[in-house]
Design goal:
Elements (H helix, E strand, L loop, with lengths): L13 E6 L7 H14 L4 E6 L1 H8 L6 H15 L6 E5 L5 H10 L4 H5 L2 H6 L6 H4 L1 H10 L5 E4 L4 H17 L8 E4 L27 H9 L20 H9 L4 H10 L4 H28 L1 H29 L10
Parallel strand pairs: 1-2, 2-3, 4-5
Helix pairs in contact: 3-13, 3-14, 4-8, 8-9, 10-13, 11-12, 11-13
Length: about 325
Amino acid sequence: MTDSAIATPKKKETILSGMQPTGSLHIGNLEGALKNWIRLQDDYWMFCCIVDWHALTASWKDTKELKNRVFEMAVDWLASGLDPDKCAIFIQSEVKEHAELHLLFSMLITVPTLTRLPTYAEKKESLDSYGFLGYPVLQAADICLYNANKVPVGKDQEKHIWLAKDIAQRFNTTYRKVFVEPEALFTTIPLILGADKRKMSKSYDNHIPLEYTEKQTEKRLRTYFTDPDKLRQGDPGRPEICPVYLLHQIYSPDHAEAIAPPCRTGELGCVDCKMKLAANLNAALAPIRDRRADLVKHPDTVWDVLTTGAERARNRAQNVMDKVRSAMKMAYRKSKK
């Protein structure tokens, strides 16, 4: 499938989005990233990349589960509503131009610049490798390889988008203009807390996976900490500090305000409140879970989507890299095309 085959008049700019393959996703991923990507796919040329090379910065010793994690992520992307007829869904390592541009970009940045980035400073004691140091340069290559105009990110990734823009500027100034200078597309990300009141994360085991059954969802919600002062029904509660109420605001929008008053008076107990949320959450996730179950039964369909997506991404990437080599006077032989 070619880009022209799915072109729509309003698609004028390109977006690159990526996510490390961690296996099955959870509702924090759905609300924090995927729903936004799904909204954007109608208005932009979208390249959605499963960044398996980035995942190696932390898991290079153990890669036996990587293929399954890639598959599970692709399943959840498709089940949630990413449409392969509207966006290219692909695996980073299947488009080798990512590595080539990463190498060339690494010549344009200094080591001190990379060591000053917050993400490196925070984790250098545990991930002090060349690959982790160069992670933001590979990320810049991911973005610029498709001449992405925008990158949807949270504020914590602002410095990385700045770096991608800076490297693109350096290349354009040193050689000639090839790259669009990308901008961050900041979005309002709902606060999704896990069972322990920390940010929802698989590493904390406080999450609600999309693959959970209704019973598993109910069981996980029963473990949620709420208000430490509300120990039993009748005790007054404070919904503003409760992660269950935060989820009600997303999954029970028509009833969330009706839940707060009886919580404050103690009329509504935490167990009943959690079960009301479980019913609404399960209803919201039911279509995703149904599509997910069908995709898992047809793995070849998922891999075909990734193959087609890689072909589309490669076509775009090769075109950009031809311009890069020409600008750097490294196109030593004429193309045989």
